[in-house]
Design brief:
The protein is an all-alpha fold. The chain has helices at residues 4-24, 29-35, 43-51, 59-67. The protein has one domain (4-67): 434 Repressor (Amino-terminal Domain) (Orthogonal Bundle), CATH 1.10.260. Helix 2 crosses helix 3 (43-51). The chain is globular and about 30 Å long.
């Protein structure tokens, strides 16, 4: 059985790596929303929540980020 604390910590680590990687490439939240086709009423909020670990980053986004 998965420990919730471990899952939460892993999510924060993934978010931190994603943020560091995208900031290191000079990408803004607006750039990311366009690149990944975030379809939402407030796409910048979605990106912000990914970066803060409040929302899981989709696997396809993680894979595309790693490929960059």
């Amino acid at each position: 059985m998965t420990d919730f604390a471990d899952t939460e910590q892993m999510s924060l680590e993934v978010a931190a790596l994603f943020t560091a990687m995208t900031e290191g490439m000079g990408l803004t939240h607006a750039n990311l929303a366009k690149m990944f086709g975030v379809a939402s009423k407030d796409p910048l909020r979605v990106i912000r929540r990914w970066c803060q670990g409040e929302r899981a980053i989709p696997e396809t986004v993680c894979q595309a980020s790693e490929a960059m």
